[in-house]
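Severity: low
Component: inverse-folding endpoint
Summary: output formatting inconsistent between runs
Steps to reproduce: submit the following structure tokens with default settings.
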């Protein structure tokens, strides 16, 4: 990470300087507490995650697994390479949109489950449900290919819930609303916290327990999460489902976090993504060049390989 004082982020009427994730989260929770006057997340508020090819290959690459920024010349980002070393092969990750810290999309992703008022949680939840419903309506075929239908499995909290949730993660309600009326998608709340909760950069298939594994064996599933940071939680959930015999078609997070202050490659990636208008007609899979589409049809879903972490300057012991 580059030295010096990081830039301030403008969020609404105040600036927030990066003082750590906990400080920023508290600030975003405070802003998300009040129901927005216009909670709709229009295209101008969302950063598209629709390209699989870097427009500046000398500056950055796009991770073949999570579609986030990777170092120039790399097939996978550092986080996905680490997760592959911990879990084995990884399913493709198709984010609905990208978001930055303190952005309106970040406020929505925090507010729908952490706003202090029921009205605030409902407003943010309705906005995100609408975005997800449109994306799934357009791109379920991109995720499933020739399959007729599948189960949508939301990822629960790995560390317990909040009293305001009343025993049910808000993502469950959001998912149910988004797929209502769909003929090919069915909600399945079969994941529970496991004995070893996944941590940042510490993915484990033991992080979640699968209820009714016999009902999942051989079924195709989409793993749905709200925020994707390092991917440990989402990918751990996918690994648990795979162990239970399910076929994971993709991990679909609502938002994938991008921190442009992380390094030059991430900054270049973010600048290129923000320059594009958000367009629900395209996703990370269907907007690929024809040559990549033909190759993916011939080879099947792309999966990250457990590349030697020494190539990233990281000790192999981190993958243990």
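Observed output (run 2 of 3):
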């Amino acid at each position: 990470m580059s030295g010096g004082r990081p830039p301030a982020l403008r969020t609404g009427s105040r600036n927030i300087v990066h003082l750590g994730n906990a400080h920023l989260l508290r600030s975003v929770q405070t802003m998300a507490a009040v129901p927005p006057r216009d909670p709709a997340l229009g295209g101008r508020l969302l950063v598209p995650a629709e390209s699989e090819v870097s427009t500046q290959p000398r500056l950055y690459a796009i991770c073949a697994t999570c579609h986030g920024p990777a170092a120039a010349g790399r097939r996978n980002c550092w986080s996905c390479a680490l997760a592959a070393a911990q879990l084995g092969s990884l399913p493709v990750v198709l984010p609905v949109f990208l978001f930055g810290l303190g952005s309106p999309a970040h406020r929505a992703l925090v507010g729908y489950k952490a706003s202090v008022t029921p009205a605030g949680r409902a407003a943010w939840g309705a906005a995100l449900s609408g975005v997800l419903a449109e994306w799934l309506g357009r791109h379920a075929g991109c995720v499933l290919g020739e399959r007729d239908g599948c189960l949508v499995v939301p990822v629960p909290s790995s560390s317990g819930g909040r009293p305001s949730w009343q025993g049910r993660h808000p993502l469950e309600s959001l998912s149910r609303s988004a797929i209502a009326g769909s003929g090919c998608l069915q909600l399945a709340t079969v994941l529970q916290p496991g004995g070893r909760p996944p941590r940042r950069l510490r993915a484990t298939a033991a992080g979640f327990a699968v209820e009714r594994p016999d009902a999942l064996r051989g079924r195709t599933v989409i793993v749905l999460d709200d925020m994707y940071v390092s991917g440990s939680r989402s990918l751990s959930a996918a690994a648990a489902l795979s162990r239970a015999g399910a076929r994971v078609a993709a991990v679909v997070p609502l938002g994938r976090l991008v921190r442009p202050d992380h390094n030059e490659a991430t900054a270049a990636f973010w600048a290129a993504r923000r320059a594009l208008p958000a367009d629900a007609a395209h996703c990370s899979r269907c907007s690929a060049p024809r040559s990549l589409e033909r190759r993916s049809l011939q080879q099947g879903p792309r999966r990250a390989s457990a590349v030697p972490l020494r190539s990233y300057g990281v000790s192999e012991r981190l993958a243990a």
